[in-house]
Amino acid sequence: MAEVLVYVDHVDGAVRKPTLELLTLARRIGDPVAVHLGPGADEAAKTLGEYGAVKVLAAEAGEFADYLVVPKVDALQAAYDVVSPSAVLVPSSAEGKEIAARLAVRIGSGIITDAVDLEEGDEGPVATQSVFAAAFTTKSRVSKGTPVVTVKPNSTSPEAAPAAGAVEQLQVSFGEAATGTRIVSRTPRESTGRPELTEAAIVVSGGRGVNGAENFHIIEELADSLGAAVGASRAAVDAGWYPHSNQVGQTGKTVSPQLYVATGISGAIQHRAGMQTSKTIVAINKDAEAPIFDLVDYGIVGDLFEVVPKLTEEVKTRKG
Ligand SMILES: Cc1cc2nc3c(=O)[nH]c(=O)nc-3n(C[C@H](O)[C@H](O)[C@H](O)COP(=O)(O)OP(=O)(O)OC[C@H]3O[C@@H](n4cnc5c(N)ncnc54)[C@H](O)[C@@H]3O)c2cc1C
Q1: Within a domain: 191
Q2: Which of 59, 90, 222, 277 is 20 to 30 A from 312, comparing alpha carbons?
Q3: Both 55 and 174 in a single domain?
Q4: Would you say residue 193 lies in a domain?
Q5: How far is residue 81 from each of residues 5, 57, 75, 146, 300, measured CA to CA in Å?
Q6: How many Å lie between the centroid of ligand 1 and the Cα of residue 193?
């Protein structure tokens, strides 16, 4: 079977969920070969093998941490030259899309970004994209070169399928451009202790109805009682009540948790684009006509300032 390169997103060898989703999709079109750059390859290989990587091409060099994307593109291209894959899959993060685009230009291939599904077609892999705020679904195929596809988080559920996952060293020689942009400082974001938004099993989001940054603590308290991540509508983010990194929707993040709780959010199409594939959707809104209610499994018509604290108390009581 043809080999498919999968670019690994990880933190010191802890593989992030979107990569497990890529491995799951890659198995539909070939044998996944993971490309792991930076520290922790042996640790990562256990997880990568569990999710179907037949091998793990690993490279470690100071350049990966010290310079912006080009060293990683050099390494991915080295893997491409070694493997001659039938496709290259990369997570659809901002960095992933830049790496993928640069690789596609170098190898003279077509690229599809922000795919939400991938399947084998008669003439190669066919990618699904959700466009115009999810109003349309398109299917596309790369018609020139080796398909390079970036895939959005939560496009599929990761499924284990154990494979060898043996680590092989990848020889990388960096080009002149690799050291063109040096990272001069790094400041870690203060941890909230909550799960990452795109990876959380439960997300509680607040919108304009929360009516001020000072009120967002009630959303956070419900989230904490459920072990959830906190999301926000663009209206709440634009008003400066919550950081943009927490925005859910077309111009924010796409989430697909087991449970999505929308509080004080009307359900505009651009918000729905980022959460409508959630498994169970609950909305709390004082307007019974709010469009969000068209989408929900459970709806509560009421004032969130009354409902949310009661809900938090109830969750805490039931958890004992
Ligand atoms: C190109 C483009 C991209 C966009 N991208 C995004 C995006 O990524 N994400 C996004 O969210 N939006 C996005 N938007 C904006 C989107 O169109 C809406 O304006 C936005 O989602 C509205 O946010 P909201 O639901 O919080 O506010 P509103 O639409 O104002 O709704 C507030 C809701 O809160 C309810 N409410 C008020 N007070 C209470 C209370 N006390 N208790 C209970 N309910 C209450 C109201 O009944 C109302 O339904 C985008 C728009 C454009 C044009």
Answers
A1: no
A2: 277
A3: yes
A4: no
A5: 11, 12, 10, 12, 56
A6: 26
Does any ligand 1 atom lie closer than 6 A to the CB of residue 215?
no
Are residues 30 and 155 located together in one domain of the fold? yes
Contact (CB, 8 A) for 155 and 21: yes
Whether 138 and 267 map to the same domain: the answer is no
Based on the domain organization, do 32 and 149 belong to the same domain? yes
268 lines ligand 1 (CB under 6 A): yes
Q: How many domains does the chain have?
A: 2
* pLDDT 10s digits, 73-121: 999 999 999 999 999 999 998 999 999 999 999 999 999 999 999 999 9
Please tell me the total number of residues recorded for the chain in this structure.
320
* Whether the CB of 133 sits within 6 Å of ligand 1: no
pLDDT in tens, 234-292: 999 999 999 999 999 999 998 888 999 999 999 999 999 999 888 899 999 999 999 99
Question: Does ligand 1 come within 6 angstroms of the Cβ of 303?
Answer: yes
Number of Cβ within a 10 Å radius of residue 132 = 11
- Report the separation in Å between the CA atom of 248 and the middle of ligand 1, taken as the mean of its atom positions: 11
**Spatial separation of the C-alpha atoms in residues 210 and 308, rounded to whole Å:** 11
Ligand 1 nearest atom to the CA of residue 267, by list position: 25
Ligand 1 centroid vs 158 CA: distance in angstroms? 31
- Asked if the structure places residue 107 within a domain, the reply is yes
Which DSSP string corresponds to 70-116? HHHHHHHHHHHHHH--SEEEEE-SHHHHHHHHHHHHHHT--EEEEEE
Pocket test of ligand 1: the residue of 237, 266, 269 to mutate, having most ligand atoms within 8 Å of its CB, is 266
Can you say which residues are annotated as belonging to the binding site for FAD?
Answer: 208, 233-234, 247-251, 264-271, 285
Separation of CA 304 and ligand 1 centre (Å): 15
pTM score: 0.83
